[in-house]
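seq/struct pair 1
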Amino acid sequence: MGMTMAEKIIALAAGVESTKAGDIETVTLDRLMSNDGTTHLTIDMYNNLKHPKIADVDKLVWIIDHNIPADSTKTAASHQKMRSFAKEHGITFYEGEGVCHQVMMENHVRPGELIFGADSHTCAYGALGAFGTGVGCTDYLYAMVTGTSWLLVPESMKFNLTGKLKEGVTARDLILTIIGKISANGANYRAMEFCGEGLHTLSIADRISICNLCVEAGAKTALMEVDDVAMDYLKEHGREPKAIVKADEDAVYCETYDIDLASIEPIVAKPHFVDNVVPASECYGIKINEAFLGSCNNGRIEDLRAGAKVIKGKKVADKVRFLVVPASRAVYNQALKEGLLDIFVEAGAMVMNPNCSVCWGACQGVIGEGEVLISTGTRNFKGRCGHKESFVYLGSAETVTASAIAGEITTADRV
């Protein structure tokens, strides 16, 4: 019996010839990422161990990205704890460099790796053919001190992509369409594997956007075949694959979907669930108070270019706040070089430092009671971005930017 991509990567990490869905394997982790959302809790637990140790410090990557700059003395203390521990133990540490998943993709992730991240959107790493999955503090600590963990091998769902996205339609529209189709529980503890000719038409930015949101369908991980596009990205960033795995022709999938990219239309996810998706046209005219372009899902240079193209020569609507937040310092610097940030500022947008910003709902652009936000963030749960009686809509970079101009939800072809 053949193996899926997820099964092959787990088998490689477990040192076994083969494995299948439902098996439990002890695996050696290739990398462990943690951010300031929970690292202070991991440190506290570590310090309470009888014989604390780190199995392989070279595998650890710690990133401050959720609340930066610190928004309170409590946050400052948490950052101090993280900073000091990282320095004491020689842990690779980033502060002010951007959102954790973008920093990881730019600097660390390699095809064939098995990566634990103390953040649910770690599945983004599948864009480079790596098995990334989010874990809690306890599982992270165990892996940190032993270098290993156990995994229940997930079933895999296959998404065969054909065709090409139409102009004005994005990879974010694609993944929101998929989540709406299979539901927020449709991939619970499953691997979502993407392949097909249509995949080759998608950029790495597109692929990150797709894999990143797979957890919103409950996925354990997301994986994409490694092709020339992925290899070019690796070469550009000075890295080589650990292993390039491809599913066997006789691999077993619990479900298979054939998706024609040309059939996808602009999509909006309505409050308060990511799978509450409708054609963007059904939301036309809904008044907004704030728009957000950024996050680990849509804060890359391609997203900023798309937004700048829509807003160039126009203005943000009166009484609308438009936050533009590059996903990393590298993206910020590139946007500076290309003059994109000038375009946003001249239009009346607020350009922020690279961080999670309002997607996290804690330190920038928090929305008040009754306010409406349209966002390229990852979630629109009740209270996610501020007051429990606020409303969050999710859309693409183009839709969010167009809405900021119109002062109401709309699409780029209408501004």
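seq/struct pair 2
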Amino acid sequence: MKQDMILILDLGSEENARLAREIRAMGVYTEIHPHDITAVELAALPGVKGIVLNGGPNRVVDGVSIDAGAAVYESGLPVLAVNHPGHGGLAAWSENAAEREAQIREFVFDTCHAEKNWNMENFIADQIELVRRQVGDRKVLLALSGGVDSSVVAALLIKAIGKQLTCVHVNHGLLRKGEPEQVVQVFRDEMDANLIYVDAVDRFLDKLAGVADPEQKRKIIGAEFIRVFEEQARKLEGIEFLAQGTIYPDIIESGTKTVKAVKSHHNVGGLPEDLNFELVEPLKMLFKDEVRACGVALGLPDSMVYRQPFPGPGLGVRCLGAITRERLEAVRESDAILREEFAAAGLEGKVWQYFTVVPYFKSVGVHDNARTFDWPVILRAVNTVDAMTATVEDVPFALLQKITARITAEVKGVNRVLYDLTPKPTGTIEWE
């Protein structure tokens, strides 16, 4: 393989992602795995030069203090314990940031003798080799939403296995305005991908009718996605793998053995137990900014690489509570206005993510001198590097006024516009 690796084992720390990014910033690749990794699993990981045991406040599980198994201590690899019980893991190890970095650097380079060979070219080369080894001469089905993650996966898999890849784009009725048409144009017409377009709008919305709980909505959407793919696979020959644009924040927020879930993601917690595909997830250890860097290295256009992130459940988690077609359309139309006005104001590409949310409650308003009882639209605009934390964009008030005027005039059933000022934490980026 092209890259050395430092393996981080999760013993209850809330700082795993921070530590991983710190080591990657030094030029050395890292992966985070459960504390109870087996000898077989450890031996299957390529290029491991050393292991960090990263403990913290969640080290006690079901009344028992967890520890790495014999496979780690008998591996012959250098081990660094960052596991002060009852304290804050990495932060408690060294309160001085410069000292902390120096300790990590000494372990990585002087003790483990790892090389600075973590870059996107080497990552891509490694993933191409791993995908070819996993897939062989068999065929892969890719869930292609047209978003950044699935687009980068598509480009990487085309390099790795070419025409063994079939892309399936499902229009579940929860996409942004004009998005299904754009996906078909870009991938089928411009990139010459094997693309199957599936119109499943009624199917998904019927399944979601009356479902208000966001976790249940995610699971329904995830399970129905898999069913659609299974049906498409049965029409093809030799499909044994399902590729997904899973990235590391998806896995973190869906929970680990020691950290409670923030929320399940449709491609992690929402997968059905009777899944009939083996998964191919070449981006699952990358943070969002690294996914974009990977897309650039693969030669994808900036318009695709730097487009806004879009949740797997789509507008389904922005139409809060039980989804109705009328509110869903209000989300879609207001989102289109927001994106159009941000682009006209020069904010496209400068703000990481911006979108609208329509809740299930209404409020009194006035239109044409008559009383209205309609929905509010909530605007959200945030900036982040890795999607783990986020700050709120300081949008000019005049622009907010213009967007408000357009939405209340052009979107049916809406009489108020609100702006969400909450960073992550305490809020999450999405509302559900």
